[in-house]
Design goal:
The complex is a heterotetramer of chains A (about 160), B (about 180), C (about 180) and D (about 140). Chain B has helices at about 60-85, 125-140, 155-165; strands at about 15, 25-30, 35-40, 45-50, 95, 100-105, 110-115. Chain B has about 180 residues and is an alpha+beta fold. In chain B, α2 (about 125-140) runs antiparallel to α3. Chain B starts with 15 loop residues before the first strand and ends in a 9-residue tail after the last helix. Chain C is an alpha+beta fold and about 180 residues long. Chain C contains four helices and four strands; from the N terminus they run αααββαββ. A four-stranded antiparallel sheet of chain C has the order 1-2-4-3, covered by helices on one side. Chain D has one domain (about 1-135): Beta-Lactamase, CATH 3.30.450. Chain D has a five-stranded antiparallel sheet, sandwiched between helices. In chain D, α2 (about 95-110) runs antiparallel to α3 (about 125-135). The chains are: A alpha+beta (about 160), B alpha+beta (about 180), C alpha+beta (about 180), D alpha+beta (about 140). Chains in contact: A-B, A-C, A-D, B-C, C-D.
Chain lengths: ~160, ~180, ~180, ~140
């Protein structure tokens, strides 16, 4: 699978950022690292979505926005679409990616499972940042049971 | 050509072995009826060793074998370049004994791939390049959990390498 | 869903922007973490180095180039192949030293600094210092020790961005144990 | 050509307002402020009309005696308002639309500056240049 070479540069940068954030933190600051990565992703998501939606018409509703994240946003960032989108119609959306790009090179199963969260914090932040800029406040978490598949759960905050 | 011909080696049940030395880096594979494959890095560390049809093993430890291998490659390389009338970019490609062929591929970054095969194998430089670019780079270099220059532990890499070798048409059904 | 097509931007451009934006977020974070330009420069170089040692393998795998004969050939590979491949720009190689061991890469539009407007009071910050580290790391893996630094930077008002590379020495293979 | 250009945050506070040099800046501020109600109205009317294309460009918001007020809303709910002189009669809708597109482009570049905190006042030099160019054209 040939990838764009500049896409590769982004991947290496992401790996190094994860490494950097964890290098300069203590063992007991793991949550802090995750939060930091998440906030970096948030800022990137905010900017990206502003650019991605410049040419499109206005979104109809929340579901329309979610579909945009699953299709266009995902495709632009990860070169593929989300494989499955589910919702309970009460503000929870679950996005499943069967081959999440940041995990495909790490493992095909359970090996290195413990490190998966490190590499999902930035992507979670990107989703949250993109949605926030589109006017949808949410909490985004990720769950992995066997790499490289990954589920992102988006919980809409209505206040 | 059967790998049983390699009578100077001793039999083993192990299909895959990881080298545990960390001061030498290299990997070898025997191919085309590959017997083994190993990947070494510049300082001589064996990063990875695996074998397929190799039926016999030397009466020495893997450790010693890797050391010998690196020493030999180092010597051949320097000998070959010394007697060459031109500046050799690729170094040496392979050598043959009456029983097996040893193929060598080195990247400009000093990663060395060594693969032993039976005598039927032609030029498998491309195979070695593919292992480097599609498997090593893809699943080791791009895997943040794999430190470069230390023995490879990634299961994904092992699987991909094994799948690739077994999928090669040059290898008949003999790989067990 | 009549508007699908209009929402799909050029993937190449997007990937470049993704990198640029992520890098920007990182630099902004580093400035918050250290509040000292020199320390941020050091961190960026270190991170660049780590990226360089991996990226070179990707580069070699993709380009299938063999070892360079001399430093001039190396300069061309960096500018015309590597920069083009990963950053989409082709710097001009110029200002060779008499000894042929030093040259400059002149970059017209550094993609790392698209969108960037430096806040006041950061005259010592080399925003794109990651590039220095990446070049150092990559070159070291092909057995060349080089020194890389920024001489000019458009971000600071210079007419061009200039990176200076100096060849230090060639690194050799380890001699096997027990042989000299 | 344009006498006032304004960028309004999604929470409806101004991020940026630039007017031509005048004694009566407040008048423009007031006009911009009033126009936001019309913007909201236009946005919320979406869906009632099946022919609605949900374009970002909202067109003419309202005319006053001396001016015409145009609006645009991004998908990120940021509003742009441009005030033109009414005397400029040969103004075509497409020209206004392309001014907004240019403004949107400049805004999203500005947002991508890593040292800008979203939601803060816009102080970017290059953004201001784009706006000034719109106000100097003839």
């Amino acid at each position: 699978m040939a990838q764009l070479s500049d896409a590769v540069l982004f991947e290496y940068l992401h790996i190094e950022i994860v490494g950097y954030i964890h290098r300069c933190a203590d063992e007991n600051e793991k949550d802090h690292c995750i939060a930091k990565l998440e906030s970096l992703g948030f800022r990137v998501g905010q900017s990206l979505v502003e650019r991605f939606t410049r040419e499109s018409t206005r979104f109809k509703d929340e579901l329309d926005t979610m579909k945009f994240i699953c299709k266009d946003f995902w495709n632009s960032v990860y070169r593929k679409q989300i494989d499955n989108l589910r919702t309970n119609h009460q503000g929870v959306y679950v996005l499943q990616d069967n081959k999440f790009r940041f995990l495909t090179q790490i493992s095909n199963g359970k090996q290195y499972m413990d490190v998966a969260p490190k590499f999902l914090a930035f992507p979670c932040g990107m989703i949250r940042g993109a949605l926030a800029n589109l006017g949808v406040n949410s909490v985004v978490t990720a769950e992995v049971s066997a790499m490289p598949a990954c589920k992102f759960q988006i919980q809409i905050q209505r206040t | 050509m059967e790998s049983e011909d390699e009578e100077e080696l001793v039999s083993s049940d192990d299909n895959e072995k990881l080298c545990d030395r960390s001061d030498t880096a290299y990997v070898t594979n025997h191919l085309a009826l590959p017997a083994s494959c190993r990947i070494l890095v510049r300082n001589g560390t064996c990063l990875y060793y695996t074998e397929w049809n190799r039926k016999t093993h030397l009466s020495m430890s893997k450790d010693e074998e890797f050391k010998l291998m690196y020493g030999m490659i180092f010597s051949i390389k320097s000998f070959v370049s010394r007697i060459s009338p031109y500046d050799l970019k690729d170094g040496f490609l392979n050598f043959k004994t009456s029983k097996y062929k040893l193929h060598f591929y080195e990247t400009p970054s000093g990663l060395k791939l060594v693969m032993n095969t039976d005598l039927t194998a032609g030029n498998i430089r491309d195979v070695l390049h593919q292992i480097y670019s599609n498997i090593y780079v893809e699943y080791i270099v791009k895997n943040p959990m794999c430190e470069l220059g230390v023995p490879i532990k990634s299961e994904l890499f092992k699987t991909k390498l094994d799948d690739y070798i077994r999928g090669l048409s040059v290898f008949p059904m003999k790989l067990s | 869903m009549s508007r699908q097509s209009s929402r799909a931007p050029d993937p190449r451009k997007v990937n470049g922007e993704l990198f640029t934006l992520t890098y920007g977020a990182l630099v902004a974070q580093l400035l918050k973490d250290y509040e000292d330009d020199d320390e941020v420069n050091r961190q960026l170089e270190k991170m660049g180095y780590n990226i360089g040692v991996r990226l070179i393998e990707d580069f070699l795998a993709r380009s299938n180039v063999s070892r360079c004969n001399d430093f001039r050939e190396t300069a061309d590979q960096i500018a015309k192949v590597a920069f083009k491949m990963y950053l989409g720009v082709t710097p001009v190689v110029s200002n060779w030293s008499a000894a042929g061991d030093e040259f400059s890469l002149l970059i017209e539009n550094n993609p790392l600094t698209d969108f960037v407007e430096l806040p006041d009071g950061h005259t010592d910050l080399n925003y794109s210092n990651l590039l220095c580290g990446a070049l150092k790391g990559a070159m070291e893996m092909v057995q060349m020790e080089v020194d890389v630094k920024f001489v000019q930077d458009q971000l600071k008002g210079d007419n061009i961005t200039e990176l200076r590379l100096k060849f230090i020495r060639r690194l050799e293979d380890a001699v096997p144990a027990g042989e000299d | 050509m344009a006498v006032c250009v304004a960028v309004i945050a999604k929470e409806n506070y101004p991020l940026f307002i630039k007017t031509i040099p005048t004694d009566n800046e407040l008048k423009f501020y007031y006009t911009v402020h009033t126009s936001l109600d019309v913007v909201e109205e236009k946005i919320s009317s979406v869906g009632k009309n099946t022919n609605d294309m949900r374009e970002l460009y909202l067109g003419l918001l309202y005319p006053t005696e001396d001016y015409k007020v145009y609006g645009y809303v991004t998908n990120t709910k940021v509003k742009f308002v441009i005030i033109m002189e009414s005397s400029n009669t040969n103004l075509r809708d497409n020209e206004i639309r392309s001014m907004f597109r240019k403004l949107h482009g400049a805004y999203s570049d500005m947002l991508c500056n890593p040292f800008y905190t979203p939601g803060e006042n816009i102080t970017s030099r290059s953004f201001e240049e784009v706006v000034l160019a719109m106000m100097q054209q003839d």
